[in-house]
Amino acid sequence: MAELGPFQAAARLWLKTHRDEATVVRVVSALGDLIAGSGGPRKAQEARWLSTEEKVRNALARLREAGKRGEQLLLITLTVKAAQLALGPRANVEFQHVQIAKMAHRLASGTHFRSAKYRTLSRYPRAEGIFMRLLGQTIEDIAGIVADSEAVREVAEAAGGRLDAV
User: Fold this and answer.
1) Is CB count within 10 Å lower at the N or C end of the chain?
2) What would the mean pLDDT of 124-137 be, rounded to a whole number?
3) Are 153 and 75 in contact (CB under 8 A)?
4) Residue 163 near residue 90 (C-beta atoms within 8 A)
5) Helix, strand, coil distribution of the chain in percent, nearest 5
6) Per-residue model confidence as pLDDT tens digits over 51-62
7) In this structure, are residues 107 and 72 in contact, taking their beta carbons and an 8 Å threshold?
């Protein structure tokens, strides 16, 4: 995670600079709609038994419940794609999707409840399998409209990534 810090900061700066562009506004809105239209979240204990598509909807519903916005999913996509461009591995889209999903999943993944006997209990749905690939692909399909090669290169360069080998 530490190596992503400069890329996250550069992605935030890039988004701040391009926030008012029509394409960025539409993509952030579409990502927000993706989160908003995901239905109600299920408890982490139940998530294990859901189908792949239901797990994706549940992860997005958890993001909505936690108050996350489309802008955050765009920042994640820019961060991951820029880091992958600068640090590698290259040309592995599946790896990229899983990394996007991991970062999104960490924003709001657990179920927390109070118990008289155990104080606060926390349960986290497993972040594994094809569900993670599909979650990342779902986010990247929309965010990738803005997080194109030009934007990703700008973020990577602003983060100080070495692109001379690319």
Assistant:
1) N
2) 81
3) no
4) no
5) 65, 5, 30
6) 889 989 988 998
7) yes
